[in-house]
């Protein structure tokens, strides 16, 4: 198994998988120190033995910074068959037909067959880097080594597999890492990520990874949060969640709703954010997920609607007016009856499972949205 110490990695072998150098070291150690000799007879290590030991340890200790340098070089490899979004060729792929496993398998098989050697090499490299940057110091070193430019270039690749891995790596190096977040903003990384939101051809899976990357870059980073709002990130996020042609997975919806809630919470004057959300049609967009088949999505959507519509301020009043315009009150009543029926037919666990959703429904019902 691989272990780490002081920023370096090493492997702790067993007898069955022990490398030849380690096996030689073990035999040498047992030969000269098996525990039966008198320690008074111990003599200084001979130069030949020192060289042997140094050579073994040098080969076994892995320099993670050197690994990252090599990896960054690999990311810069040019693939003549990979046209980025700026080339005018199609970026991303249309989602397979919803609930059609055969279509999904065919799409995956087609994508795999189109990959070249360089694409596969870059996939392996991105996965390796994602493991290495779990160490916060490695994340900073990756940026200092000039790793952002080739990473942002890959975000614009036509290969969804590369785009998703690149977004995952961006999330890993940026999460709760202020220095990296600021450097990413300086490199115009947010602009590159938001282009995925704007492109209607971006698949739901890619959008999810892009959203995770954006969230990691801007959350708890004041310059990032301001840059996101200035770049019209919230309108584009709502538009992505409201696109009927795009198959948006539940995990993506949850990330999107959580990010909207984050901006609502951080505003010193939450009324201004409420006003913006209402003006952008957020109540209607979020309301559409109140009966989603994923319970976490339903809870997050209902919680957000309660937050926006509750209050006596002008923004809350407008939110309630918007919800009344789409008969949301009747939808709430219908959903409450459904949940009550499910609880009656189920057991104690079902009652607990629906308790949070039911509480939000009751709060909305008290707002008289019918």
Note the main attributes of this structure.
two-stranded antiparallel ribbon; single chain; 370 residues; elongated; mainly alpha; 21 helices; 2 strands
Would you give an account of this structure?
The protein has 370 residues and is mainly α. Helix content is 67%, strand content 2%. The chain contains 21 helices and two strands. The protein has helices at residues 20-32, 47-60, 64-75, 101-114, 117-132, 136-144, 148-155, 160-174, 178-186, 189-198, 204-218, 222-230, 233-241, 250-266, 270-279, 282-287, 295-309, 314-325, 328-345, 348-353, 355-365; strands at 2-5, 8-11. Strands 1-2 form a two-stranded antiparallel ribbon. Helix 11 (204-218) runs parallel beside helix 14 (250-266), helix 15 packs parallel to helix 18 and helix 17 runs parallel beside helix 21 (355-365). The chain is elongated. It starts with a strand and ends in a 5-residue tail after the last helix. 32% of the residues are buried. Residues 4-8 and 85-90 have low confidence and may be disordered.
Give me a quick take on this structure:
The chain is mostly helical and 370 residues long. It is built from 21 helices and 2 strands. It has helices at residues 20-32, 47-60, 64-75, 101-114, 117-132, 136-144, 148-155, 160-174, 178-186, 189-198, 204-218, 222-230, 233-241, 250-266, 270-279, 282-287, 295-309, 314-325, 328-345, 348-353, 355-365, and strands at 2-5, 8-11.
């Amino acid at each position: 198994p691989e272990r780490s110490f002081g920023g370096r990695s090493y492997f702790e072998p067993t007898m069955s998988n022990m490398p030849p150098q380690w096996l030689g070291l073990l035999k040498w150690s047992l030969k000269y120190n098996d525990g039966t000799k008198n320690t008074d007879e111990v003599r200084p290590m001979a130069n030949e033995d020192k060289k042997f030991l140094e050579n073994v340890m040098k080969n076994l200790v892995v320099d993670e910074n050197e690994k990252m340098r090599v990896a960054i070089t690999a990311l810069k490899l040019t693939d003549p068959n990979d046209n980025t979004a700026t080339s005018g060729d199609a970026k991303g792929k249309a989602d397979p037909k919803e609930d059609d496993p055969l279509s999904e398998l065919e799409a995956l098989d087609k994508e795999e067959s189109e990959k070249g050697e360089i694409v596969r090499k870059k996939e392996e490299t991105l996965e390796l880097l994602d493991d290495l940057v779990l160490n916060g110091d490695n994340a900073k070193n990756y940026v200092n080594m000039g790793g952002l430019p080739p990473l942002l270039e890959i975000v614009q690749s036509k290969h969804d597999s590369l785009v998703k891995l690149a977004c995952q790596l961006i999330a890993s190096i940026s999460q709760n890492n202020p220095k990296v977040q600021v450097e990413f903003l300086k490199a115009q990384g947010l602009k590159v990520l938001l282009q995925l939101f704007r492109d209607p051809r971006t698949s739901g899976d890619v959008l999810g990874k892009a959203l995770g990357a954006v969230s990691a870059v801007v959350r708890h980073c004041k310059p990032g949060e301001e840059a996101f709002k200035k770049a019209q990130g919230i309108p584009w996020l709502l538009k992505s969640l409201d696109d009927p042609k795009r198959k948006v997975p539940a995990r993506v919806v949850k990330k999107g709703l959580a990010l909207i809630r984050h901006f609502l919470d951080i505003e010193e004057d939450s009324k201004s954010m409420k006003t913006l959300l209402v003006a952008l049609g957020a109540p209607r967009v979020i309301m559409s997920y109140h009966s989603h088949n994923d319970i976490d999505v339903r809870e997050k959507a209902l919680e957000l609607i309660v937050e926006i519509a509750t209050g006596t301020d002008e923004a809350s009043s407008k939110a309630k007016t918007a919800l009344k315009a789409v008969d949301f009150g009747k939808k709430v009543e219908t959903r409450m009856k459904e949940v009550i029926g499910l609880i009656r037919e189920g057991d104690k666990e079902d009652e607990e499972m629906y308790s949070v959703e039911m509480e939000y429904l009751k709060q909305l019902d008290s707002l008289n949205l019918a």
